[in-house]
Amino acid sequence: MVIAIDGPAASGKSSVARRLARKIGFDYVNSGAMYRAVTWELLREGIDPARSESVEAALARMSLDCGFSGEGEFFIRVNSELPEVELRESSVNSQVSEVSAIPAVRRLIGSRLHAVAAGRRVVMEGRDIGTAVFPETPHKFYLDATPEVRRRRRAAEGHNDSIEKRDRIDSTRRHAPLAVAPDANVIDTSHLTLEGVVEAITGILRHRGIGPA
Ligand code: CDP
Ligand code: CDP
Q1: How far, rounded to the nearest angstrom, does the alpha carbon of residue 115 sit from its chain's CA centroid?
Q2: Fewer CB atoms inside 10 Å of the end CB: C or N, the chain?
Q3: Residue 28 near residue 4, CB atoms below 8 Å
Q4: How many helices (H) and strands (E) does the chain have?
C-alpha cells in the first residue's frame, strides 16, 4: 500500500511524510533523494547533465540501490557510496531538475521505487508519485504553499536553493511533470503547522480505515 505525497519545493513533503509514516506505522520513502543521489553521482563523475547521451551512458554503469536499514531508515546507495548531507549541496540543487527531466533517469528511479515498495506499507513523497509512479493508489495528497512562504522556509533552513527555477522545470517537463492528480486531496500548508498538516491527512485516512496500529 502506498500513500503518495506530492508537491513543489518546501511545501512540507519530507517533514510531513516522515511524521505521518511514524504515526501510522508505515515506512517512509523520499523519492527526491533518489533524483538527488543520481545527480550528485553524475556531477562527481564530471558529467554534464545537459548532455543526455552522456547521462544515459553513465546510468548504464551506475549501481543504484535503496532500501531500509535495521532501524527502518530509508537509505540510498549509489556506486557503493551512501550520500546524505551531500544531497543538499548547492550544485545538486541547481542541477537536479535538469537531470530529473531525462526519461532514462525517471525509468531507472521509477523501477527502484516500485521494488522498494513491494509488499510494504509506505508513505512516499515526491513530484509524480500519485500521477505517474503509483497512479492506482487511492491515497494521494498534494501539498502546496504560496511561493513566498516556501521561499521563506528554505531560506530559514540556510540552503542555497532557487526553488522557483526548479518548480518551473519540474512543472513544464514533458515526462511526469509536477501536477495535481485529479483524485488528490490538495492541502494548502501556508498557514498550517507541520502537526496541523499531519492531522489533516490522518483525519482523511482514518475514514478509510488506516490509522495507528
Ligand atoms: O525537498 P525538495 O522539494 O527541495 O526536493 P526533492 O523532493 O528532494 O526533489 C529534488 C528534485 O528531484 C525535484 O526538484 C525534481 O526535479 C526531482 N524529483 C522528481 O522529478 N520526481 C520526484 N518524484 C521527486 C523529485
Ligand atoms: O520536502 P519539502 O521540500 O516539500 O519540504 P520540507 O523540507 O519538509 O519543509 C521545508 C521547511 O519548511 C522545513 O524546515 C519545515 O520544518 C518547514 N515547514 C513548516 O514550518 N511548516 C509547514 N507546514 C511545512 C514545512
Answers
A1: 16
A2: C
A3: no
A4: 8, 7
